[in-house]
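For consistency, the fold was encoded as tokens, as this record shows:
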Amino acid sequence: MSAPRVAVLDYEAGNLHSVGKALQRAGADAIVTASVDDAAEADALVVPGVGHFGACAQRFRARGFESLAREWAAAGRPLLGICVGMQILYPTSDEQPDAEGLGILRGHVRRLPGGDLRVPHMGWNTVVAARADPVLEGVSGQQCYFVHSYYAEPADDEHVLATVTYGRGFPCVVRHGSVVGTQFHPEKSAGVGARLLANWLAEVGQPAAVQAPRPGG
């Protein structure tokens, strides 16, 4: 069986080549591309992201990726969002209330409360499963690497696969149908991150009906 072809979407907002190399080590035929046409030929999409919610969403649209991502999710095809790449899948964020996210996932992106804790949340922290899911095999109870000041709060608690605690608990892995998002960086999370990517890649190539229900509800 050939390696699944995964397109890492290049919209100038992420650790593109680190993500691509991590996917290759996990068993993917990964490409980094700014071409909608090339990405459309892949088996799965990855939306990386580092930076500001509004600017990232704007660049994503400017590169022409919005329609592709929407159609991909609606068809029940595998899509992985990482850090801000996950956050822009939501419609709104505290980071820029007037900015429009993609709205592929339902919910809101909130700022970490801070208080006595330093924001951004930076460093290794323990991922705890909220519900069973194949993507979390070998990941729950392990430490992954975080760098962020905001987190996604899904509209439906059923979308929360795992949480992390930094002053308070908040979601760090979400799923709605074929769309998975991680607040931590798998590409920076050593063997645990590699395991999550391998788990996710195991879904790629499966018929949509075999995967979890598609987004939209």
